[in-house]
Amino acid sequence: MIHPMSRDNPVHYLPRVAERHLAAVLQTQPVAVIMGARQSGKSTLVANSPATRGLLRLTLDDLDTRLQALRDPEGLVARADRLAIDEVQRAPDLLIAIKRAVDLDRTPGRFVLTGSANLLAMKPVKETLAGRASFVSLMPLTRREGLGLGTAGIWDALIDTPVREWPALLASQDVPPDDWRTVARRSGYPPVVIGKFSPAQQADWLQGYLDTFVSRDISDIAPITRPLDLLRLMRAACVGLGQVEHQSAWAAATGLSTSSVSRWTDLLTVALQLIRVPAFTVNRHSRLTRKPKLYWSDTAMAFHLSGLSEMTGAHLENLVLTDLQAWCGSRSQRPVVHHWRTASQTEVDFVVELPSGRLLPIEVKATTAPTSRDAAGLRAFLDEYGDLCSGGLLLHGGHATETLAKHIVAAPWWRVL
Question: Are 158 and 186 in contact (CB under 8 A)?
Answer without folding.
Answer: no
